[in-house]
Design goal:
The protein has 13 helices and 7 strands. Helices cover 48% and strands 11% of the residues. It starts with 19 loop residues before the first strand and ends in a 14-residue tail after the last helix. It is elongated. The chain is α/β, with parallel strands linked by helices. It has a 7-stranded mixed β-sheet with strand order 2-1-3-4-5-6-7. The longest helix is centred in the middle third of the chain and has 28 residues, at 185-212.
Length: 316
Amino acid sequence: MNPASAQESFDPRDRPARLTVGVVGAGRVGPALAASLRLAGHRPVAVSGVSDASVRRAAALLPDIPLVTPAEVLARADLVLLTVPDDALPGLVEGLAETGAVRPGQLLVHTSGRYGTKVLDPALRAGALPLALHPAMTFTGNSVDVQRLAGCSFGVTAPEELRLAAEALVIEMGGEPEWIAEESRPLYHAALALGANHLVTLVAQSMELLRTAGVAAPDKMLGPLLGAALDNALRSGDAALTGPVARGDAGTVAAHVAELREHAPGAVAGYLAMARTTADRALAHGLLKPELAADLLDVLADGDRPGDIGGAGGGR
């Protein structure tokens, strides 16, 4: 199949039109996407990876697919997945273009959330067809990732003439395409990092504190609570806010800060930052009564200073 006309025929039933697929960067994402494309009838033919972990992932998710250099991946594949860390992507693209590895008509796909297609400009000038397909999913590096792609949203950026091809590839992987403008990619990625990456930090920190408090199975305690909170937040947004900050319980918040300062001082700054943000949003949405907000904000301001926590009712 001529990749330049890929957007015209991505029918999974059309087996003769399948693409050969290569992966540059066998991290957690690339092998899973290639394995998913294989289920849709495409044919992985080459993968590159350096670390032992990359080699193991490639062997597990793409068995019998040869491990070769990045340039050789491009030589063998019609569709190339560039699944390297964000900071490495511009240099990789420039290097591949400068060495003549990029072929005219080749579909070049990166999975960075931060970048759109401009980062692929060096390859575009060499005749490649640029696509940015970012799966909004956390990856583990094993076969469960392929299953998680079902229903997963992808941030899609592509030239208008390749938009249908980009969206069709996402659908073939079981995903849901969401169009993201080039200039909105950094904000889009920041939003995902704020929600997903910081969530992991908050949950891990919460489990540590519960263990310190004597809870034997913090995961079992947090599971139902966090599941309900996430479901409520996705359904209702700020209206789902509960807890002492939203209620304006300045004394309880002061006690929290004092306990954290004694038992987990490294958690104080994060607690205060999130509490201030929560207070601002609760106040803006009418959940926090203005007459209670002043005392609460005083406690949060005092929390930055070592020693006793002030504010109305701020004793332990």
